[in-house]
Amino acid sequence: MAFGIKRQELAAWKEQVARGEIAYLTHYWIDPRFPGITSVTKVGCADLHRLEQWCREHDLNPRYIHRRQPFPHFDLMGSRQKEILTQEGLNEHVSRFHL
To answer: Out of the domains of life, which is the source (predicted)?
Structure first.
C-alpha cells in the first residue's frame, strides 16, 4: 500500500517517465514481505535501455526492473535507497521519508 504522496507528485512522475527521463518517486509503503521497510523509491523511465543503464551505473541488477507499461520502474528499498537518493542529490526524499 502506497501513501504519503500527493496526486500532483504522482502525475509529475508519470509525465517524466513517459518522456523517457529518469524519474524518482518516494512514498511510504508497507508490505509484509519486507519487514522493517517503510518506504520505497520507484525509479522510472519509459526508455528501458536508459533505465537498464541507470541500474548498471548503480550496481543494481536490471533483471529486477518492473517492465510494466506505460511506467517501467525499479524499486529501491533499504540502505541502497538512501545511498542512491543521496548520490543523486535528492536529500528532500531522504529527510521527508526519514531514511
So the answer is: Bacteria
